[in-house]
């Protein structure tokens, strides 16, 4: 029986491998009349996705679409592969990626009235494109916002003196309401009368005076070029005077997804496909594991580019969303939510924004546990760039570049976090041009933030990031137990660090070490702190930071709500609070201070910067470029790598292991042998110097203290200290501090 069972297993494995198939599909060359056997030859491919769906697929199978071809269909995946042999959906041939298009070409137009044309369509149209460009759904006003003129506590009505249309004119249309600095909410109107319209379910936020709204979805509002409306199987389009529909390719979205992976499927690879114009998401993943979405392009989604959701949270895992290009989505670029052991890497996401008819939209949303988000490029979003949801565990967000977020909103961030994290790392990212926009609100000043720890965020580590051109550089709102270290914040219009609590002692146990805050004028604060009147718990610990402002006036502002406002210089702040010990009010001397200061490497500091060897160890392994700290850490996002910085005199021509340093022409420091082959090193100091006790210390490359001793210094004598043999192979930093501790010498020691 054992032999029979073994042969059965072998035969099953052999048959699975041998029976795996590759199906070829070409809309231009194929025919659905071919058999499934013929379709396994690229010379006789099938034609349609509908035909592909008639066959069952197993582990090891592939479905390949011909490059350069277009399918106006939806691919629904109902099959699973195996860990060793996933099912692959990809491409073959040469040319442009094969395109799955969610829109159909609309023809048969006739003149409806004036400049409005009408065409019959077989399916509901959710987007309209003219020559590939998305058009505006009928709206009022044609651009911008109308203004709310009365508060509504019940969240079920809106009043505006601009609403003068007849009773129930707006019934069935949608009000898009800018209900808060951080919120845009659509509501379908049930009725309107006088200056008021109502809807059936409450908004999230209260309806408040001087916030904005616009209306969409009314045929009578099709009154400017490109505006359109769908109802009852007909599409209406306003064409510019002197133009005609026959001059253009007009497409209407009729399908929800480009690719829809059905519930529970796993072991799938989606790669090298182009998806355009879907009504919801380009690629939809719901409760799936072991799915790879790689090297695809997705454009013009009405909602999300790539959408992966899991319920219950963290019940699915191993989702890989890598090297995709997502552009021109109305809602989120990429959403990967409540997953376990997944990665989102090296994607390029851009234009997550509808500038004419804005909706609430994030560049990327992710939360879960054991997730890496790295190497992504994000440019231009309505709202926050990266949204990190609550309860993230062991998540790393690193080496991403995030630009031009908050284009149409006023309270969010380039990187934004929820609360209650465990081992969340936000490190070595570049966040730039997060300026904010308060149109549609009563605001007069931006509240946008580069990196925003909001709503009681805790357990976040913000390290080695570069934030440039934000209203607020880094903000903590009701946040506690977070680490903010080795960041560079430059050119903020309001402040480098914003701290805000809403109730007693909400902000506490936060650590601010080794950061550079660099601004240019008197209106740009370093810290702007708002506390409740009775708060007494320290905000955290501030140490070894550089504060630089071209104006030397007071740049730290602390406000107690209902109480006093204090404005300090760094020295006054230190005296009043005991904070920012060992911090420096000085120019960090960025290497490209005369340039645009927009490229990360511009924010390196040179050997003569006050930030060199002026930091405090926080246990990091690498800096922004992956370099290890050498001895005492530098302040900022970069560790200086030129060996000249490791000599006490910092003179030209001194190498990393220079055995002798002539400090000032009178004093001489000898370290020998260096390199050391046996671990013993002798230090000799001779010359004309002040007698007394000097301090000798030796740190490993990662900043650990390995040896410390006193050296009795006598003027004119040879003074010796011998480091014992316990040194292991590596590079060490020797520091000798003179008796008055005002002068130091440093040299690198190599143990071979």
In short:
This protein has 752 residues and is mainly beta.
Task: Provide an overview of this structure.
The structure is a single chain. The protein is mainly β and 752 residues long. Among the domains are: 104-251, no CATH class; 398-641; 647-751, Sandwich (Immunoglobulin-like). The strands form seven sheets. The protein has a 26-stranded mixed beta sheet that branches. A hairpin with an 8-residue loop joins strand 57 and strand 58 (681-687). The chain is globular. InterPro entries: NosD_dom, Para_beta_helix_rpt-2, PbH1, Pectin_lyas_fold, Pectin_lyase_fold/virulence, Secre_tail. This is Por secretion system C-terminal sorting domain-containing protein. Residues 322-518 form the Periplasmic copper-binding protein NosD beta helix domain.
How much of the sequence is in beta strands?
Answer: 35-45%
- What is the global morphology? globular
Total count of strands:
63
Unreliable segments (pLDDT under 50, ≥5 consecutive)? 1-17, 647-666
Mean pLDDT: 89
Helix amount: under 10%
Work out the radius of gyration.
32 Å
Instruction: Label the structural class.
Output: mainly beta
Q: How many helices in DSSP terms?
A: 3
- CA distance, first residue to last residue: 63 Å
Largest sheet: 26 strands, mixed
